Task: inverse folding
């Protein structure tokens, strides 16, 4: 489902890996710059100098903008800072792609979103109250939860987590790891790729394969 | 030191060339992708834009239109006396042909052009345009199409409202001051008004709306780098819009009325 074929760009040299249907993997970084570079390539923003990046067997950079957008409808991305649209309220952000692509209304989304929040534990009741806030008024954790729920509502085949657990407290990390793990298993063949800092928190994340990009 | 700096002239010419190229690209993109308005989230942005550009501007437009109407009728009656037919003609020339579209456009440039350019510029700098792509949403469809359609429609509606307000308030003031009877004056305007006059003024408003919206999107979306690009985008959009509006006003007036 995700394949890096001898990808080289800047400090990322000759990177190859293959993540098959149903697989989970984490890529560990000791440099945020290197992570940003790899994330830029995964997101189709930066073209590799050599090599290919394939999603669902299709070269990410072989197509035009429209084909790439169609590809991203099947991929959920959870950016490190949430990647929320600043002039939309948290709830509008959460609903945007599902409303845009699947015509999911606020009423229809209420139940699945409540389920996601409930999985985060009873402490998240306050988060529901903050859905009317703009992203600038949310904490980092809240922005990530909104981004996570936004990606999950689309039921993607591939989920890319960009430093999702970094900089959060122990309980929050525990809850998010549990939530992403359970979400992975809910659809057969789903692929989860975690970009993580090379630290003790990331070591707790259980995945099928680990790639280290620390050299 | 020479008065004419070839480098500066060259940069200005290249900048104008880039602007017109970008303008046409955005114009054709919007026309091609107008169907995106069928998607509910895009439609919501479109309605929000109409509310912000059209409805929220009505207060300022009402005051400016009423004062313009009062000043113009006062000036006309001081020049031609109580000649209802001539007053109606001059009123139409000034308010319907020129001031209505121009002043409405200027109010909207001051309010919405700078706001749209700076909003899009800040979204671009914060990487939100890329985040839309991660969601499989074409940024042009979601951000540009509803703004261009919303601003253009608002300029047409606000221009019509400006013209009506200026004429009614101008004649109401003249009647109040005892210069001429209100109903007779309004009837004089209606009988003098031709379809060409109305259509050309709406054409002007439509063209101005397109220019204002596309220019604002162009300056907002080309911003990059640091936060200083945000005020630069807003100022650039306002200045370019003002220049283009006055130029187009002259061209359209010349084409239809000379």
Result:
């Amino acid at each position: 489902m995700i394949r890096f074929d001898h990808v080289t760009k800047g400090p990322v040299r000759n990177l190859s890996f293959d993540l098959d249907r149903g697989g989970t993997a984490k890529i560990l970084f000791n440099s945020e710059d290197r992570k940003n570079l790899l994330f830029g390539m995964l997101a189709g923003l930066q073209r590799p100098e050599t090599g290919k990046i394939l999603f669902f067997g299709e070269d990410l950079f072989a197509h035009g903008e429209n084909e790439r957008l169609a590809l991203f409808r099947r991929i959920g991305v959870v950016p490190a800072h949430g990647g929320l649209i600043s002039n939309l309220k948290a709830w509008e952000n959460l609903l945007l792609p599902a409303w845009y692509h699947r015509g999911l209304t606020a009423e229809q989304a209420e139940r699945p979103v409540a389920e996601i929040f409930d999985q985060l534990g009873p402490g998240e009741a306050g988060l529901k109250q903050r859905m009317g806030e703009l992203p600038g008024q949310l904490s980092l954790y809240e922005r990530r939860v909104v981004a996570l729920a936004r990606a999950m509502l689309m039921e993607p085949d591939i989920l890319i987590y960009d430093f999702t657990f970094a900089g959060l407290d122990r309980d929050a990390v525990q809850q998010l790891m549990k939530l992403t793990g359970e979400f992975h298993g809910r659809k057969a063949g789903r692929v989860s790729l975690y970009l993580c800092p090379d630290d003790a928190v990331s070591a707790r994340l259980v995945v099928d394969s680990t790639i280290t990009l620390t050299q | 030191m020479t008065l004419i700096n070839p480098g500066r002239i060259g940069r200005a010419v290249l900048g104008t060339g880039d602007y017109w190229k970008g303008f046409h690209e955005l114009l054709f993109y919007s026309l091609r992708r107008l169907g995106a308005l069928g998607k509910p989230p895009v439609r919501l942005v479109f309605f929000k834009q109409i509310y912000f550009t059209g409805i929220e501007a009505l207060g300022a437009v009402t005051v400016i239109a009423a004062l313009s109407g009062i000043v113009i009728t006062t000036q006309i009656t001081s020049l031609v006396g109580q000649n209802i037919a001539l007053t109606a003609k001059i009123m139409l020339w000034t308010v319907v042909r020129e001031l209505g579209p121009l002043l409405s456009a200027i109010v909207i440039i001051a309010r919405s052009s700078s706001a749209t350019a700076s909003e899009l510029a800040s979204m671009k700098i914060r990487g939100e345009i890329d985040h839309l792509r991660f969601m499989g949403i074409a940024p042009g469809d979601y951000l540009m199409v509803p703004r261009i359609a919303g601003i253009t429609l608002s300029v047409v509606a606000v221009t019509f409202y400006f013209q009506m307000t200026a004429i009614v308030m101008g004649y109401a003031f003249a009647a109040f001051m005892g210069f001429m009877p209100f109903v007779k004056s309004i009837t004089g305007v209606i009988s003098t008004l031709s379809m060409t006059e109305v259509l050309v003024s709406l054409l002007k408003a439509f063209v101005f709306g397109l220019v204002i919206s596309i220019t604002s999107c162009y300056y907002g979306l080309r911003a990059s780098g640091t936060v200083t690009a945000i005020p630069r985008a807003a100022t650039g959009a306002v200045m370019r819009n003002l220049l283009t509006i006055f130029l187009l006003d002259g061209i359209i007036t010349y084409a239809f009325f000379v």
User: Anything to note?
Assistant: Chain A has a mean pLDDT of 90.
